[in-house]
Amino acid sequence: MSDVLISPDELARRIGGGDPVRILDVRWRLDRPDGRPEYLDGHIPGAVYVDLDNELAEHGAPADGRHPLPSLERLQTAARRWGLDDGDAVVVYDDLSSSARSTSGRATNSTRSARGDGSTLPI
């Protein structure tokens, strides 16, 4: 696989092998933005629910758009709540295709860009 994508089998192997993996459930839909009920109905074991509106976005002026990127400080605070530690692999998933993938992509790109070199997120 690529350095960004992971197969379900590889994820299971890493979890079973005791590798430090943090799993983020970032379900979000325009018609139902709070994905927590779906998370509570079922999620990958060990996954933490991530709220797009409150953890992966700032609340700015309307001119800033629907979900402006969070500040580094806001992202670090959220990452601590998610249980991320330096050196952890981070796996992000959602449950929709097409444009909704922007939610998992946002989480992936936010954590990768905050890391600087792609390896650690300063916590």
UniProtKB/TrEMBL annotation:
Residues 97-113 have a biased composition (Low complexity). InterPro entries: Rhodanese-like_dom, Rhodanese-like_dom_sf, Thiosulphate_STrfase_CS, TST/MPST-like. Gene3D superfamilies: Rhodanese-like domain. Signal peptide: none annotated. Pfam families: Rhodanese. Residues 96-123 are annotated as: Disordered. It comes from the Bacteria. Residues 17-102 form the Rhodanese domain. Keywords: Repeat, Transferase. The keyword Cell division does not apply. This is Rhodanese domain-containing protein. It comes from Microbacterium deminutum.
